[in-house]
Design a protein that fits this description.
Blueprint: H1 2-21, H2 35-59, H3 65-87, H4 92-123, H5 138-169, H6 176-199, H7 205-283, H8 286-301, H9 312-327, E1 331-337, H10 345-364, E2 371-379, E3 382-390, E4 395-396, E5 412-413, H11 422-431, E6 435-441, E7 446-454
Parallel strand pairs: 1-2
Antiparallel strand pairs: 2-3, 3-7, 4-5, 6-7
Helix pairs in contact: 1-2, 1-4, 1-5, 2-3, 4-5, 4-6, 5-7, 6-7, 7-10, 9-10, 10-11
Length: 457
């Protein structure tokens, strides 16, 4: 019974945290099933294989216990990786990157447990409390539990926050170098760790300590790589925020310049209209004057800048983009009700600017009379946006073609193969712990964007 418990518990403690951690850096909308259901299924999966390990070892199928345990571990890792790839809708490079980082954690824990176990055996004469078929000794199980208690409080925040922000902010095409560096260094570490484990039984104690020092240097090198990548991620986020702020300022300056030019042109046109009306009055052409004034009123009505809402940034963006839409003969219907918002102006520009640019670009290609319907409002502490625009067709990522309904930003591609700019929208929404979802309706030929932001976040 002790043999069965210590092997099952040891395998469960070693593999469950790693299995759950590979899913933590990805947001809920990328999961194909609910988060709670997913984590429950993963826990049951590891529990079942934890029970199978001692049964397999006791069956006597192979006399080589270590080989049997290693093959069993590789099988579990392969099944886990396959489920990870199938259940998370994200770039394969990003998923493999996360997998190798968590693999490094698992290898580091394994190395630490074996090293401590060796020292305990040498200095305190501990011996495995098991028979010859066992993989986990009793003190080995305890060491896995203790190391997990010390390592997980550091690893889980790193994976669920820092790494999550990194893979969210960085595009796949910019990650290839970091990806191959991490894979290469992780493989070197695993090879060295395997050699270290093998050398424990065959090298003198002094040579063993030298090898241990080299292994610790490789571990520090690996941690340094992770730190450099995270620092680069923070730099990219700062540059992105600065760029968005500059874009907002440029947009405001462009609008001021356009308004000044419109005012100058209106003054010029107004003098021309006064002269024309004065000539008609001198000739007594009252009916012609009335018709001229009627046409002039209809023409001028469309040129007056509307005030859509009390929020200056949102109102400026709506005026700017509805002006572009009017020049493209795109009809816009706007219903916006919002005042002061606890949202950075640069983030509002990212949200509304990207969505409106996508909507206008889509309407330009629409063969019929295009329309953009904009609805913006606040509900309690939340800001909600729904932008619906005419759309003939979209390009879908192959991972999402069999699915219907609202999809994440990664599902929609442009002609160049990148996201439509919706990824920037989704990233900004996640910053405020909000929700963004997108839908293409081929029957109605409409593209719908829905955004909800928690302004208390």
């Amino acid at each position: 019974m002790m043999f069965f418990i210590q092997n099952a518990v040891g395998f469960f403690i070693q593999f469950l945290p790693c299995t759950l951690m590979i899913f933590l850096p990805f947001p809920q909308e990328t999961y194909r099933i609910g988060k709670r259901s997913l984590f429950a299924c993963l826990t049951i999966f590891i529990a079942v294989f934890s029970v199978l390990l001692p049964i397999l070892l006791q069956s006597g199928i192979s006399k080589n216990t270590a080989l049997t345990a290693n093959l069993f571990t590789l099988l579990v890792m392969f099944i886990t990786l396959t489920a990870f790839i199938l259940l998370v809708r994200e770039s394969p490079i990003k998923k493999l990157l996360v997998f190798f980082i968590v693999l490094f954690y698992g290898a580091l824990q394994y190395c630490l447990v074996n090293t401590l176990s060796g020292f305990l055996s040498v200095f305190f004469h501990f011996s495995p409390i098991s028979n010859g078929w066992s993989v986990y000794s009793l003190h080995g199980v305890l060491l896995y539990a203790v190391t997990a208690l010390f390592m997980l409080p550091c690893m889980i925040p790193f994976v669920s926050r820092t790494l999550k922000e990194y893979i969210r902010e960085v595009y796949t095409r910019n990650m290839r170098r970091e990806f191959f560096i991490l894979i290469f260094s992780t493989c070197i570490f695993i090879i060295m760790m395997s050699g270290f484990d093998f050398a424990y039984y065959y090298l003198e104690y002094r040579l063993y300590l030298i090898l241990l020092a080299i292994l610790l240097a490789v571990i520090m090198y690996q941690v340094l790589i992770y730190w450099l990548i995270m620092r680069e991620s923070a730099r990219q986020r700062r540059e992105s925020a600065q760029l968005r702020a500059l874009e907002l300022q440029q947009l405001q300056y462009e609008k001021i310049a356009v308004d000044m030019e419109n005012t100058r042109r209106m003054h010029h046109d107004l003098r021309h209209h006064y002269n024309t009306l004065n000539d008609m009055l001198d000739r007594g052409e009252l009916k012609e004057m009335k018709d001229y004034l009627s046409k002039l009123t209809d023409t001028s009505a469309g040129r007056v800048s509307r005030t859509y809402c009390r929020n200056m940034v949102v109102n400026s963006l709506l005026q700017y983009y509805t002006g572009i839409a009017a020049d493209e003969n795109i009809r816009c219907e706007v219903n916006a009700e919002c005042g002061e918002l606890d949202i950075e102006p640069s983030d509002i520009t990212v949200l509304l600017g990207n969505v409106m640019e996508n909507a206008i670009n889509s309407c330009r290609k629409y063969p019929k009379a295009p329309i953009i319907d904009i609805r913006i409002g606040t509900f309690g502490s939340s800001l909600a946006m729904e932008i619906t625009n005419s759309c003939k067709e979209v390009r879908l990522d192959s991972r999402f073609r069999s699915e219907n309904g609202f999809l994440p930003s990664e599902a929609f591609l442009s002609s160049s193969g990148d996201s439509y700019g919706l990824k920037s929208v989704a990233h900004t929404v996640q910053k405020y712990e909000g929700i963004s979802r997108f839908l293409f309706d081929p029957q109605k030929e409409l593209f719908i964007t829905q955004i909800r932001i928690n302004m208390n976040g």
